[in-house]
Q: What sequence folds into this?
C-alpha cells in the first residue's frame, strides 16, 4: 500500500461548483498533514495545514479523520483560478524531518 | 526575500556528463531537501539535510550526491548523468522546532533532460 494515496482525477467541474478531494495515509503515527497546490510547470506551494478539529480558510475546508487515516479538502464556489493539482502531504512521525507527498489530484474548473 | 532560489532553470546533458544543481534559501531555515518529480510518480525525496553539517538519503538517492555548503546552500550533483535522471528537480527548505508544522518552501525547479 502506498504511503499517501489520492484519486489522480482529473476532476473537471464548472465554475461555482463544490468539489471534494480525498486522501488516505498508511502510517498511523503520522503527525502533521497538509494540502499543497501545484500549478502547471510551477513549484508546489502550501495551501493549508490540516488540523485535528478540521479547519477552514475562505472557500477551502480541510478535514482529518485519524481513526480512518483519511484527509479531505473541500472547495466551494470553484473559480477558474482554482485549476491546479492538489497534493496531499503527510509528515510520517514526530521525529521525521521529511514529508511524504501524494501524487496529486488534478482539478480543471471550466467556464 | 527571494525565498528559495535554484540554478539553472533548464539544462540538457549528454549521458555520462556531470553537473551540479545549486539551491539557496534566505529564510534562515535549518532543513533543506532535494526532490525529483516525474509524470505519474509525484514528488520523491532524493536527499535531505536536517541541519547544517548533516545529510541523509531519501527515497531515491542512487546516482546523486549532495553537499550542505552552509546554512543557506544545498547542492545536488549528478556524477554521470543517465536518461533515467531526466526530471524536474525541486529544492525545498523548512524550519524545524517545537511547534513547527514543518511547512516546506520550494524553489522554482530545474528542468533537466539527459540525452
A:
Amino acid at each position: 500500500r502506498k504511503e499517501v494515496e489520492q484519486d489522480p482525477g482529473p476532476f473537471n467541474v464548472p465554475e461555482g461548483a463544490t468539489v471534494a478531494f480525498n486522501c488516505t495515509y498508511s502510517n498511523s503515527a503520522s503527525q502533521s498533514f497538509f494540502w499543497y497546490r501545484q500549478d502547471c510547470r510551477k513549484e508546489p506551494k502550501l495551501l493549508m495545514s490540516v488540523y485535528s478539529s478540521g479547519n477552514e480558510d475562505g472557500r477551502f475546508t480541510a478535514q482529518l479523520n485519524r481513526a480512518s487515516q483519511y484527509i479531505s479538502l473541500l472547495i466551494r464556489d470553484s473559480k477558474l483560478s482554482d485549476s491546479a493539482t492538489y497534493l496531499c502531504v503527510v509528515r510520517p512521525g514526530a521525529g521525521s524531518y521529511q514529508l511524504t507527498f501524494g501524487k496529486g489530484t488534478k482539478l480543471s474548473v471550466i467556464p | 526575500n527571494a525565498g528559495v532560489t535554484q540554478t539553472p532553470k533548464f539544462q540538457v546533458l549528454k549521458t555520462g556528463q556531470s553537473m551540479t544543481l545549486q539551491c539557496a534559501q534566505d529564510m534562515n531555515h535549518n532543513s533543506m531537501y532535494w526532490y525529483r518529480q516525474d509524470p505519474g510518480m509525484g514528488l520523491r525525496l532524493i536527499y535531505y539535510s536536517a541541519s547544517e553539517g548533516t545529510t541523509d538519503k531519501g527515497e531515491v538517492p542512487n546516482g546523486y550526491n549532495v553537499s550542505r555548503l552552509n546554512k543557506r546552500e544545498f547542492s545536488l550533483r549528478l556524477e554521470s548523468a543517465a536518461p533515467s535522471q531526466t526530471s524536474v528537480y525541486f529544492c525545498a527548505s523548512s524550519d524545524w522546532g517545537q511547534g513547527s508544522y514543518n511547512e516546506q518552501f520550494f524553489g522554482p525547479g530545474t528542468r533537466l533532460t539527459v540525452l
User: Anything to note?
Assistant: Chain B has a mean pLDDT of 93. The two ends of chain B are 36 Å apart (CA to CA).
